Structure formats: C-alpha cells, structure tokens
Amino acid sequence: MILLHPLMLAGVTHMQEQIASSLHCLQADNTEDENNLLLFPRGIIQPISLSRQYTKEKRLLAEVWKSLIPAAEDIGSDSLLRMFTAFPGSKTYFSHLDISPRSPHMLSHGRKIVLAIAEGAQDISQLAVNLAPLQILHAYQLRIDPTNFKLLTHCLLVALACHLGDDFTPEAHAAIDKYLSAFAAVLAEKYR
C-alpha cells in the first residue's frame, strides 16, 4: 500500500479537476472539433473516423507528390545537397560522383529519389511491395547505412517546405512527415 502525503493528494485532485474542466470546455455539446475528437458524456475523448482522416491524408499525399514530379530534379538535388552539407559523413557513398550543386549526377539521382517517393505515395498500402527492389539494392548491393534514409527524409522535408511555400500547410507537413518516416522505415527493413 502506498501512502501519499496530503499535499500530493490535493495536487492530484486539483490536476484531475483541471483536466475535467478543460475537457468540458473543449466540447460540451458533443460535436466534432477541428482535431476530429469527440467528447463523450463521461469526459472521455476518443478519435472519430480515423479511416476518414487516413483517406484524407492519402489523397493529400498523392496530390502533393504528383504536383512535385515536374520539379523532381530541383527538389531531389536540393535535398541531397542539404544532406551532404549538414551531414558530411553521408558523402562517402557518393565519392565516385560529382556532387557539386546542379551537377548532372546530383540532378539525376535527386530525380530518381523524388520519383520513387512520388510513386510510393500513389498507393501507400503497397509501399513495401513497391520498394522491394530498392530495399535489396540499398541493403545488399550498395550497403547504405539506414540512418542516411532518415537524414535524407529530414532534408527532403526542408526542401519541400522551401519549394511549396504557402502550400506547405500544417496538414501537408504532418502527412508528408509521416509518409517519409514510413518510406525510410520500409527501405531499412532488409537491414534487420
């Protein structure tokens, strides 16, 4: 049996009261709010229609990546350049290529990266199947450190924010970040 000091007990009770009052202020009329949460009569917050939110994100991702295909070289090479500048250790895998800004190698590889990501965004449910050849290539032939996938996706997110400007809404940011994390995780699966 654990005994609590009366002041600690009062603090816990006070926190519970604050949480309960904020929940009732959040939604007293049991309607949807902008975060897709519903307050039930007992004060329990539960997500509603997760599949609807997932479908919305899938549609948003497909639209965003489809619109980025014409600028694939610029976005991809910018992402690679950011990665090489911020994380110089990642250059070791490209020592045989010209990795100067706007070089043909950077533009070509950047385009390949963005097109692969855009292709995966068209059908997220088949991401592992679509990336199987790239998994094998990067894990067994090129032997790329899987940490570099996370570094590149971070740099790609920054490049997308610069490229999209006002179209890079918080919703788009969240959806793209989740998708790029999943993309990097799927690429790294063969390393286990």
TrEMBL record:
Q: Which GO terms describe its cellular component?
A: blood microparticle; haptoglobin-hemoglobin complex; hemoglobin complex
Gene Ontology biological process terms, A to Z: hydrogen peroxide catabolic process
* Lineage top rank: taxon: Eukaryota
Q: Where is the Globin domain?
A: 52-192
GO molecular function terms listed in the Swiss-Prot or TrEMBL record: haptoglobin binding; heme binding; metal ion binding; organic acid binding; oxygen binding; oxygen carrier activity; peroxidase activity
Q: Pfam families from the entry?
A: Globin
Which InterPro entries does its entry note?
Globin, Globin-like_sf, Globin/Proto, Hemoglobin_a-typ, Hemoglobin_oxygen_transport
Question: Which UniProt keywords are present, listed alphabetically?
Answer: Heme, Iron, Metal-binding, Oxygen transport, Transport
Q: Which family does it belong to?
A: Belongs to the globin family.
Q: What is this protein's name?
A: Hemoglobin alpha embryonic-4
Its organism's taxonomic lineage begins at:
Eukaryota, Metazoa, Chordata, Craniata, Vertebrata
Query: Gene encoding it?
Result: hbae4
